[in-house]
Amino acid sequence: MQKRLPIVLLSLMSLVAIMVSCEKIIPSSPKEDEILDGPVEGLSYDQLRRFALGDAAFNNEIFTPANGLGPGFVATSCGSCHAGDGKGHPFTTLVRFGQTDETGNKFLDQGGPQLQNRAIPGYKPEQIPAGASFSKFTPPANTGLGFLELVADADILAMADPQDLDNDGISGVPNYAVLPSYVQAFNNAIALKGKYIHRFGKKAAAYNLLHQTVNAYNQDIGITSSFDPVDAYTRMVIDPEISTLTVNNVVFYLQTLKAPIQRDAGNAEVETGRKLFEKINCSGCHKPTLKTVFSPVVALSNKEFHPYTDLLLHDMGPGLDDGYTEGSAKTFEWRTPPLWGLGLSMNSQGGSYHLLHDGRAKSIEEAVTLHGGEASASRNRFNQLSGAERNAMLRFLESL
Amino acid sequence: MKKLFTLIISIGIGQMAFAQIDPKLLRAKPSDTAKNSLNMDAVYERPFIAVGKLPVSVGGYMEANWQYQGTDGISEGQQFQFRRMTLFVASTISKRIKFLSEIEFEPAEKEIAVEFAALDLELHPLLNLRGGMILNPIGAFNQNHDGPKWEFTDRPIAMTQMLPTTWSSAGFGIYGKNYSGDWMLGYELYATSSFDDSIIANHENRTSLAASKRNPERFEEIASGQPLLTGKVAVRRNNIGELGLSYMGGVYNKWQSDGIVIDDKRRLNVFAIDFNTTLPKLKTFITAEWAWIKVDVPDTYSQQFGSRQMGGHIDIVQPVIKRTILGWQHSVVSLACRVEYVDWNVGKFRETGGNIGDELFSVMPGISFRPRQQTVLRFSYRKQWQKDILGNPPARTGAVQFGVSTYF
Questions:
Q1: Where on the phi/psi map is residue A84: left (φ > 0), alpha (ψ -120 to 50), or beta?
Q2: Which InterPro entries does this UniProt record tie to the protein (chain B) (predicted)?
Q3: For residue A365, how many other CB atoms are within 10 A of its CB?
Q4: Could you give the domains of chain B?
Q5: Integer Cα distance of B379 and A11 in angstroms
Q6: What is the pTM of this model?
Q7: How confident is the model over B366-387, as pLDDT tens digits?
Q8: Would you report the helix, strand and coil content of chain A in percent, each value rounded to 5?
Q9: Which of A22, A90, A120 sits opposite B352 (nearest CB)?
Q10: Nearest residue, CB atoms, B205 vs list A27, A30, A62
């Protein structure tokens, strides 16, 4: 018995030591600036609880035929398209079709505006109708959307220059469209003939994050809600397949996802790149700094942030004109995509870049050189940069 | 006063225990100690206790553990888990008619399941009829999965999340064995209840045979109306080891409703190979299993649900101390390591031609202590890398586990 005691005590002490120190031997978190998901700093406990509920619904709720998937669909969950809340992959790139001008979509009765290119067993997926133009949209990153939602219409209009009065070759116009019945206009909204400035999506065709979320559930997953009870496949009104609370939680999650954090901001090459970015006037559209208006969510209220977008539509030239559009945008106009988080795109796109609206650009450099229209002058200046200057600018873009 | 109270309580409990059952009546019924046994014998290769002259033997096992697990720095903290308790009841109805059942309680799953309840009727040593709730002989782990037999708390991922261990079904079949010198050959062939559409429509968001386990109707109704066929051939040579080849397949989906054809018939096919051996001299025990799954997934469905999967594991167990430890004679301390790999979606994206991810690699070193052969205390550390379907940088998981498992 005397001999056993030391062995027993030693074993127990070892076990307790492991239990106490086990936190040290699990893999550590990636650095905060290397990931896109996570809540904005400063949320209260109740807001964080709501964020967690939205996070679970967004990333963990998988839809099957039993809980409403399809019959036609693009993806089986929100997280399928936005891995790690980052940009999407061609696997979940969606196709929209049927609208060529501001008069509206002519193919709504043939499945427009979005193609549900997949279907549950026993059903056939949609096909693009003959004669319909279409465009492919790669899923965007989700991060920082709450800040973008809180930019005042007046600030957006202040960046617009439809007549190019400053002669920099860049105009920029908002996408005015009619609000869906379930969407309330912002307090500071500036309407034009009953239409409101929309800001989310490749063509800026979604007004706010509720509009975006309800559309995505309906058109991407085939999930009806109390906001939009029309089934995308049958065109019939059916019972909601997701609760209103869940939709609201997901909207809150998207609103309170943190903004991407720049990496290596103090690096000399990155700083050189930043200056070149402004010098060749990429910042004419990719506005580095915007600010939010008041929000009951204190963490988002009256904040300055750095998204590198002006939320406006710009003529991007014939090379990027797919012949399809939404709202009042022309087919060659695209909303300036925020550049924040750009350098982390590969971590959510399967290790490769799939940039521009349809993922056709396989590098940041290719994306820049495919710019046309209002961006032609900046693109030309980029092409004239020396190798070192170009590398510096790319390093800056990767740091975002 | 306190000591007196404790003494009275102890005596009281002891008296009550004797009042319930006389331990002298309990006869440990040794498991089949014949050297020539295969994985297919695992259901009978368990310690049973016969009670007096009752015509039944009983036994069981339980598993519990402490765990700390975290992925990329995020952890739910320390957890105590009671994984399962299983009861066996066996009965030799006559010399060539046997019945064995296994009932499993899994509190976390809120599940009480009849895992095995079959009548074995020996027509000839080479031809036995088995009917009831059977364990489909796909691979080795599905048949030989008792917790106390393994050196790790976690079951192999490929065998439980890709293959659906424990996969038991209602059905009938035949089996037999033949010995010849150092050689032994066994076979099994069963027709049973099958899978359903949930293998490609589930909340795992991937093709998952295990998803069908949640459908209780499978014990009464085959979704496709066609039985699942499972067959296995195993050969063993003493001093070399056992090799098993198995197949399971059939139509899995509900393709007709009230006589109306509503979908194509879709098949699944599963192939598995398993091997185990004990190296002479070193006494290193090695067991390995690998499986391939092919599922007919509609082309118009999502590639999220793969049509091909593969994966397996290898466990290496090296006894390092065999002696009396803390008064337990023939105690064994072993070092062990498990390596696992699963690819839940073998193939390439139609859109890019790039490799589809959704794969996992895990290494788990551990140490075990067996005071008796039927009881194991085990400690392990898991390091795991799991890629999502797009092949993004893997989520890194670490897990420390300490567990106990014992037959009783």
A1: left
A2: Porin_dom_sf
A3: 18
A4: 22-407 (2.40.160.10)
A5: 12
A6: 0.90
A7: 999 999 999 999 999 999 999 9
A8: 40, 10, 50
A9: A90
A10: A62
